[in-house]
Amino acid sequence: MAEASVVVEARAGYRVVTLNRPDRLNAFNEAMHGELRRAVEEADADEACRALILTGAGRGFCAGQDLSDRVFEEGKAPDLSSTLERLYNPLVRRIRSLRMPVIGAVNGVAAGAGANVALACDIVLAARSAKFVQAFARIGLVPDSGGTWLLPRLVGRARARGLALLAEPLTAERAEEWGLIWKAVDDAALMDEAHRLAAHFATQPTVGLALTKQALDAAETNDLDAQLDLERDLQGEAGRTPDYAEGVRAFFAKRPPAFTGRRG
Ligand code: LHQ
């Protein structure tokens, strides 16, 4: 049997999803897309799962689309729109809307769609030796998987254009300095730090965090008025969770809260 291209490990309260095509720096092919989609859906369906770590096996995080899947036939243009519509766009939408925090643990180079899938995660940690490369320009393509939307919002117009048009690697430390990611950490400490955060999230008010993700995403396009309305509605929802009641009780009892992460 062929080796799985995505490996899932269940821990107490969270899961670790590892892209597993190390000899191709975990570049995406159809099989890996399918397995990743299944891993994310299964995590979502498991009520006990309250955080997800996405990382890569070997020395890379993900080198984007597997270009050996794209060998050109004479006179035939590939339909990249359909690849995005079927595979990458649903993946990015799913990560963004997942009901739990997603921690990207970028263990090595993240290139092309691999970089932008990493940046779609809620908290992005990167090993100090990792690099982010908007490699698309090197092969005549446009940054995809949300890159053209996210980059200017994260690092501003000038840096977004530099990254996208020059396709030069950006170090993890510079990525942190620019606000592209949450934190660069020593290589040896990366997974410990990712596990520490996931274990923390596994004890947190998961529904409130999901609503917070939703509010922050909507804020990218809403005006203040619409955002205030949305905050009103989402706060109403958060206020009806048992975790809110528990948080307030624990506050007055001067003890740590015991959140369940459940809706009711
Ligand atoms: C690879 C790949 C790879 C296959 C390394 N494919 N083998 C969406 C919709 C539809 C179609 C098109 O695309 C997209 C989105 C995209 O993602 S487009 C962008 C695709 N990705 C790239 O252009 C990145 C290509 N890779 C690289 O530029 C370099 O490999 C990076 C900068 C990632 C790493 O460089 P190095 O550390 O020097 O490693 P390497 O180049 O030696 O790669 C190691 C091996 O992995 C090597 O195989 P080999 O048999 O020679 O050891 C590469 O061929 C293979 N590999 N990326 N995307």
Strand order of the largest sheet: 1-2-3-5-7-10
The radius of gyration over CA amounts to 19 Å
Q: Which kinds of small molecule does this entry bind, naming each only once?
A: ligand LHQ
Structural class: alpha/beta
What's the total count of β strands?
10
Number of contiguous helices = 10
The helical percent reads 40-55%
Distance between the termini: 43 Å
Mean pLDDT, as a whole number? Answer: 97
How would you explain this protein's 3D organization?
The protein has 264 residues and is an alpha/beta fold. 46% of the residues lie in helices and 16% in strands. The chain is built from 10 helices and 10 strands. The chain has a 6-stranded mixed sheet, with helices on both faces. The protein has a 4-stranded mixed sheet with strand order 4-6-8-9. Helix 8 (206-219) runs antiparallel to helix 9 (224-239). The N and C termini lie far apart (43 Å). The model has no long low-confidence stretch (mean pLDDT 97). The structure holds ligand LHQ.
Keywords:
binds ligand LHQ, about 260 residues, six-stranded mixed beta sheet, 10 helices, alpha/beta, four-stranded mixed beta sheet, about 15% strand, about 45% helix
Set out the fold topology.
Elements: E1 6-11, E2 14-19, H1 30-45, E3 52-56, E4 60-62, H2 80-97, E5 102-106, E6 109-111, H3 113-120, E7 123-127, E8 131-133, H4 147-155, H5 157-166, E9 170-171, H6 172-178, E10 183-185, H7 190-201, H8 206-219, H9 224-239, H10 242-253
Parallel strand pairs: 2-3, 3-5, 4-6, 5-7, 6-8, 7-10
Antiparallel strand pairs: 1-2, 8-9
Helix pairs in contact: 1-2, 4-5, 8-9
The protein binds ligand LHQ.
Ligand LHQ is lined by residues 24-25, 27, 63-68, 80, 83-84, 88, 109, 111-113, 133, 135-136, 138-139, 141, 144.
